[in-house]
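Help! Submission page says 'invalid entity' but I think these are all valid:
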Amino acid sequence: MNYQSFRIDAENICVDYNGKVALYDANLRLKPGQICGLVGMNGAGKTTFFNALTGFVNISKGKIRINGESVRSAQKDQTIAYVPQNEGIDSQFPISVWDVVMMGRYGSMNIFRSPRESDVQAVKDAIERVDLTDHLSIPIGNLSGGQRKRTFLARAIAQRASILLLDEPFSGVDIRTEKLISELFIQFKNEGKTILLSTHDMIHVREFCDLVLLINKTVVAYGETSEVFTPENITTTFGGISPDFLFGPES
Amino acid sequence: MELFSSLTLYSFITDPLTHDFMRKALLISSLVAAVCGFLSSYLTLKGWALMGDAVSHSVMPGVVVAYALGLPFSLGAFIFGVGSVALIGFIKQKSRVKEDTVIGLVFTGFFALGIVLVSKIKSNIDLHSILFGSPLGISLSDVKQTIFISLLVVILLSIFRKDLMLYCFDPRHAKTVGINVFFLHYLLLTCLSLAAVVGLQSVGIILVVAMLITPGATAYLLTDKFDNMTVISVLSAIISSLIGIYVSFWFDLETGGSIVLAQTFIFLFAFLFAPRYGIFKLKKLFAGYK
């Protein structure tokens, strides 16, 4: 198969921080319209994997191709959007919902980042899709966890990226937000976007991840969720802890 | 007592303006305050207070060497300011010592070097004015340097205002959408060094860090909008400088100390009475009486 038909093609990538290995020999190939769950313990390298794909950290070995191009040109083309964990952002930063979502447009604006009519429209549309139109000028510090999560999702939508990387999209959100995000994922899939999301919630993986990538510093298992997401693999991923303990006996 | 009886508010403000050195001090200190206040918003949000302290102390040997060699003092200060940042980064990366320890270690080392140099180099360096500032005795060439550097910093910050905000808020997103984060990091550090250089004329090396953090901290308590925060920070810095200079003129107090004290009082006022974030939450207090 031609490598260009992959949205994400990560081959044998390694990342180390000052000699300390965080991820090694990791592979991932995703096509348009695929949703992939990234599952692993804390410290297993999930965030490092995201950082490598966005170019926030340099890989020490291996190769990453985004639409057949380098990560650098993917950044320039606004191809990848990253939706951080709620804990990963300063919620006391003096900034409104509108301003955060507008940051999704910065990469395609002029040097002063002055919004054009099309940018304003993109931001409006994105905010409407996450149902925050009534909260445009609210500082993010005054939002609930779910609303804040939706704000950052709107930023990714406004960016019009074809690849979405989401770090724990369902942690600390209310039922309404969870439902809205799930619906958006179906829409994104139909729009041909590629989604990679990390999660601790195994139910979500079964519900809408076509593929699953189990990691523990390296890839433990990767493939169709129905085939790969087995109790044995999960146990290996979580260092020998049985899935019964993790998700209750019914799983 | 005679002073007070003859003094109306009007003459309190206008009398000092008849002196050339006072007009110059008020103008330069306001400019310096505006620059430091502008930068202050970014430093407080980025959590770089300690970095500001480090850079401002580290410029000491640069000032001394520049004076001894007859170079513009801002050049020497800038080189040592940036040098300290580079050294901090290097030691942090190459050793297991924690960042705040490295910062403390580097800047005290530089500062000590400066003090030793002053005692050794025979020249007309006025240690007191370096350490505590002397806005009332500023020379014409220093005025020119200060205006030039201040304008440079204001222009840089204005152009990259939004990018720097994004860098402080979410550097990962900045990187993901192709913005040069490396450049922004060093731009902010360069502006910090330059602001420290101009700030030390107003309040001196020891207190310049207050110019870099107090106005931003005050503004942070008063607003939830970034643009407003910048405006409030700049205004509170300018007002503090004016108050400090007038008070030091009339009551014969150290000028740098008076400016910083004025800033501290404005911060304390915000800390106590800020509508939303003050400990007495004035908004709620008034709402209770309705």
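Support: the input was valid. A stray whitespace character was the problem, and the output above is from the cleaned input. The domain at 20-281 of chain B is CATH 1.10.3470.10 (ABC transporter involved in vitamin B12 uptake, BtuC).
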